[in-house]
Amino acid sequence: MQTFHLILEFGKMLRNLDAWLEKATVHAKAKSFEVDVLVKARLAPDQYSLDRQVQSACDAAKFGAAYLSGKEAPKHPDTEKTVAELRKRIATCVGWLETLKEADFAGAEERRVAPPWLQGKWLRGEDYLLQAGMPNFLFHVTTAYSILRHNGVDLGKMDYIGALPLRD
Amino acid sequence: MQTFHLILEFGKMLRNLDAWLEKATVHAKAKSFEVDVLVKARLAPDQYSLDRQVQSACDAAKFGAAYLSGKEAPKHPDTEKTVAELRKRIATCVGWLETLKEADFAGAEERRVAPPWLQGKWLRGEDYLLQAGMPNFLFHVTTAYSILRHNGVDLGKMDYIGALPLRD
Question: Once rounded to an integer, what is the mean pLDDT over residues B52-77?
Fold first, then answer.
């Protein structure tokens, strides 16, 4: 598998997440409630609310791509207060991911990845991506999806997966 | 990245899922409720309950590994009624995954993957794994986690990620 292809999947899933937030916006309008009440919705009192799930998904994608490409991740402060702002955050993150090229990930599997939370230890690039970066990214994306589903937004598995490059 | 290493991550996440069910069992005992009430817990009335999330996670791992290795997936009927039975289902699935070897996945990226739900179309092995098999697997694992969190089981991000091959 190409590391770059997993980075592309990060971007695709973030665009899917944006589409779920669009569906949430349409749902709120149809039900005559303020969509931004969903920003602080959560599934457990000590689990991140929707805003933090979206911010964390963006950061997991951004830092994962940065660590594996050796590029510096741009700074995106967590200031979003509305669904519209969260969608802008996603667009900003996806825009940066789209500047990365396959060649940026040459040798990524063997890079030393030492994010601050590893407190001085490090992981091989491939171990980081498959055992931490990717599952952590999909954790936040899926939890955002579940928060929206729990609040009545009409989403299904194909909204989650998105378009597939099917062949005849 | 090695396809086989992503298959190993499936097994690892299933063992993590088993550990969350163990924590749920301890939690239920401490709170004096019957742990098996969680089997039908769900986050939305039209989303799968915990039993189906666990069964689907097992199947996603099993079929993903089977499609990419060309091995036949063993049959595991969805008959589990208790948390203990769901944990046995996980153990059975992990046991089968552990019979697979790196060599079984030679050429996996270019295999034609044509599961029934693609209705005659197919995906390249790598496209299937990165855009469908892996996100679908982590969807069910994460939703099972969220159902348990929503019901008060004391889980955190490191329970989700599990042990990492850290280096000094």
Answer: 97
The answer to whether A38 contacts chain B (CB < 8 Å) is no
* Those residues with Cβ within 8 angstroms of residue A97's Cβ, 6 or more apart along the chain or in another chain: A7, A10, A11, A14, A61, A62, A65
pLDDT digits (tens, 9 = 90+) for A32-87: 999 999 999 999 999 999 999 999 999 999 999 999 999 999 999 999 999 999 99
- Pair A70, A34: CB distance under 8 Å: no
Q: Which two tokens stand for residue B70?
A: 């060309």
Sign of the C-alpha dihedral computed for residues A7, A11, A13 and A17 taken in this order: positive
Note whether B117 contacts A: Cβ–Cβ < 8 A.
Answer: no
DSSP β-ladder status, A112-113 and A123-124: antiparallel
For residue A111, give the 3-state DSSP assignment: coil
Helix/strand/coil for A124: strand
Q: Which residue of B has its CA nearest to A106?
A: B1
What is the predicted pLDDT for the residue at A41?
98
Q: Which residues of B touch A44 (CB under 8 A)?
A: 146, 149-150, 152
What is the pTM assigned to this prediction?
0.98
- DSSP, collapsed to helix, strand or coil, labels residue A167 as strand
* B80 and B71 Cβ atoms separated by less than 8 Å: no
Average pLDDT over residues B57-67: 98
Give the residues across from A167 on adjacent strands.
Answer: B122
Residue closest to B41 by CA, chosen among B147, B153, B168, B161: B147
ipTM > 0.90 (yes/no) = yes
Closest CA relative to residue A109, chosen from A122, A123, A126: A126
Q: How far apart are the first and last CA of chain B?
A: 22
- Interior/surface letters B23-32, b for 16+ CB within 10 angstroms, e for the rest: ebbebbeeee
The alpha-carbon gap from A118 to the nearest alpha carbon of chain B, in Å, equals: 8
